[in-house]
Protein: Alpha-1,6-mannosyltransferase
Organism: Pseudosporangium ferrugineum
Amino acid sequence: MRWLGFAGSVCAGADAVLFGAPTWIRRGVSVMSILRGPHGVPIMLLWIAGVTALCAAWWLGRRLTVSRRWILVTAALWIAPLLLVPPLASRDVYAYACQGSLFDAGLNPSVVGISAQPCPWIESVSVVWRDTPTPYGPLWIVLTGLAASFGSQAVAVAIFRLYAVLAVAGLAVAVPALARRTGVREERALWLVLCCPLVPVHMVGGSHNDALTMALLLAGLALVTGRRTPAGPPAVPVASAGPPAVPAVPAGAPAVPVAPAGPPAVPVASAGPPAVPVAPAGPPADAASGELPATDAAPASSSGAGAGAGAGAGVGAGAGAGVGGGPGGRVLVGGWRGTGVLVAGGALVGAAIAVKTTVGVVLPFAVLIAAGGLELNRAGLLRFVRRGAAVVGGALAALAGLSVVSGLGFGWAVALSGAGESRSWTSPPTAVGIAVNAVGKWFGAGIDVVPAVRTVALVLLLGTLVGIWWRFRRGDALRGAGLACLAVIFFAPITQPWYLFWTLALFAVTTVRMRWFELTVVASMFLILPNGDGAWKPLQVPFAFLVTGLAGWVAWRTLRRPGPAVPS
């Protein structure tokens, strides 16, 4: 798998040199125009072979049993061929550079487009983005300004790629940290995230800021999640179903009969070697160690809920205190230290929002994670308010601090409204509008319903987000966060393949069955040409009808279910 993916990355890197996204804009690019042009057949063969090899290696490697080091080396090998090539599959990096140049000149990219300066490299930016304010947060704008401050477009592009590589390194730390806290196998999560073809092609090759966004977000979620209850018996006795284990008695000590609730007491021998502890009823003891086999911690709703239901009252109370008794089998650290960790986690989530504001939909789920869910009783509500306030306070403090220190103010919070000028069938609301426009044209009506459909979609998005949050208020909030990001992608006026990385990174650290989503990621890799143009642009209207049918099917499935649609 390793060398198959490496070969695919080499092919993609070669294609970036032959037909990537240069500083000048190629007009009227399509599959047929590439094939008719110079080196057209090798360009398309390299692109298809490279993307296919990366997707196949990632797909086939999902079930491998390998070490974390092997995965990290593999990911590095797949990224290496794309480090020193021109931008691949997107022209966004040139827009980043011009936005940074605008900021470096003392203007606010959240308020005016890059044509206001104008940017010295404006001819490299797609026309649709020249008069549009940047939809990114203050942290990213500051980073773009730093990259552009050297006055060289080539240097700025290189710095953006460096940002992407550092972000992938951050993901290599954040993903296993969060996976440990959620009880997910670290190697599986790392493979799904770092070796996904989105990373070498779009995160590194295209130098998108989504990798940095998710590295900060996952790091923040790891802090607010807290430590997971250790598998197996902890240092203190934990009550289990049936009688508790009887500790060994030193040689020479008189036998002490143990009388737990339930079965009769079992005396412990005193003469000779120390007695072997009596195994409790329930899971069989490990033959080699005499300990219970490791199991996932059971969810708990109170400080004593980690103990078994059939345990004696005296042992149950001590067990809950010994392991921390956090909801969901986690240790929720209290006191000033615990509050500080939550504030720090919230600040990292806020920093992620300050890069890409759309991931702000995850913040309400971070509150659920920190509080161990929402319990509608006095203790649960107090815990929710106390711990949620720490997370939200940290996020707001980070956002406010970055907004003030950068001098940008809070205009970035509404700049997303200008991000919908482009039209593509990959966005379901836009596809519905394009399909309706086409039908109207057939009957001689010159209508444009795309803006109206997009407005309705935003209203539906708000309701969907509330429904998802309520559905996951008592547990599995990370899965809810992934679905919230997926809802944003589905209802957004613009949808790009690399947006799927948000949901992928969140699903990877949960136990959700995600084969359907992995197939979606693979399919998305074939939507873009190596220069960044849409591969199926000439077929926009037929594909708009196809996506409209998909949107209708999703709506029908949602209405048929008693609760919010949750893919399994």
